[in-house]
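User: two proteins, same treatment. go.

Assistant:
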Amino acid sequence: MGVSGSGKSTVGRLLAAELDVPFVDGDDEHTPEAKARMAQGIPLDDAWRAPWLDRLDTILRAHEKDGLVLACSALTRAYRRRLTRGVRRVAFVALVAPREVLAARLATRHGHFAGPALLDSQLATLELGDDVVTVDATGPLDTTAATAALAVR
């Protein structure tokens, strides 16, 4: 989990391979309308996020027995609770990096609907608490994924 540019998709794929479980990118579950809003720099509010979180919860429940790595912003404790309503065992790993690092990554990312205009609103919304293990996302990707794997085992 984390804000745009933290490496959720890239690290998530590496983590899923390390754990030998499927990977799902939560971005793929956004509606075309939600993606269009975000592409315009308009952050999603709770009404827009709720059905997306419900879809992701359904995916998590379908993989509860065999495991799954899901890349998802999961910015607030309330979003994380909604996301995992039907799931008994879950670990949240938050990929964290300084704003400057995130902004630099987003400036070079092309073809993605979540651009630099959303970064500040996501950072303002992000709630890290005792339900989250934080992992430094500024180092090499394989190191970040290995650290995440230790956190969820």
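Protein 2:
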Amino acid sequence: MNAFERFTRRLSQWFNWIALAGLTVMLGLVTVDIVGAKVFRLPVPGAMDFTSLLGLVVIAFAVAQTQIMGRHITVNFLTLRLPKRIRIIMRSISTLLCILFFAVIIWRAFMHARDMQVLGDASLTVKIPLSPFGYGLAIAFVPMLLILLIHFYYIVKGVDE
């Protein structure tokens, strides 16, 4: 499991760099759009389209690294009072549900991206093709699914990460 875990962590780090690049481009685009509109009366055409799609990139590609760092919100003040065996069972069930959720999201995102590609869906103002972003969303959630599988392995094995 060690090599698989290292691969997953490295993949998550690379995806996090993609999210960071998307955020940097988004920041630059918004800055240029605001300055262009206010100072030169020349806004960036399609800035809202680009910003929305870059937001998808930032969120989707950062989710796995966020999970690795333990930055997602957890509410466990009730479960902490339960016996350890019940907590393990509840963690196993919730992790399995998350695995199922992300597997379905990945599958449906690929299917939806294919539909967008076939239909030629594009953004409203500057007609950016949407299917690459749909495929990107599906691919971006793969490391999250792998992390959850690793997490489930550790729960079953009885080892805390």
